[in-house]
């Protein structure tokens, strides 16, 4: 193969690679993005799962087990850009997680479904879990940029 043929072959590979990357990006746009991880905080295992839907994020925070816990829905409301939170599972006596759901809506601008099994008598653990979760959401690009839109 001569030098010209080699250069032409390399150019064709570059073009095909760019087309393939574009196709993969288009496929990722329509699919769910699932992230699962665990952290050890004060000798306690916290487990996280984040599922990114097109206009919503589902978050599960587990405490030492795979128990679902209480579930909350939070969403931005109009006209004054406030946030509404309601309990879906678990009743209103234990509001651990409702504050996290509220703040996640403010941080992401998206609807949030949050399931949380952190015990209600451990506010420091709840704070640590929220810090870890926010750091992960920022690293994944799921938070709002400072200019107002989401950084997707």
Give your account of this protein's structure.
The chain is α+β, with helices and mostly antiparallel strands. It has 2 domains: 1-31; 33-140, 2-Layer Sandwich (Ribosomal Protein S5, domain 2). It contains 3 helices and 6 strands, in the order αβββββαβα. It has a 6-stranded mixed beta sheet, with helices on one face. Residues 19-27 have low confidence and may be disordered.
Secondary-structure blueprint:
Layout: H1 3-30, E1 33-41, E2 44-53, E3 56-63, E4 70-77, E5 82-89, H2 98-108, E6 111-116, H3 123-140
User: Sheet with the most strands?
Assistant: 6 strands, mixed
- Give the CA-based shape: globular
Unreliably modeled segments: 19-27
**How many structurally independent domains?**
2
Instruction: Give the helix tally.
Output: 3
Secondary-structure element order, as H and E?
HEEEEEHEH
Query: Could you tell me the strand content as a percent range?
Result: 25-35%
Number of strands: 6
Output the strand order for the largest sheet. 1-2-3-6-4-5
Could you tell me the radius of gyration in angstroms?
21 Å
Please estimate the helix content.
25-40%
CATH topology name of the largest domain, in short, is Ribosomal Protein S5, domain 2
- The averaged pLDDT comes out at 80
Shape-level CATH architecture of the largest domain: 2-Layer Sandwich
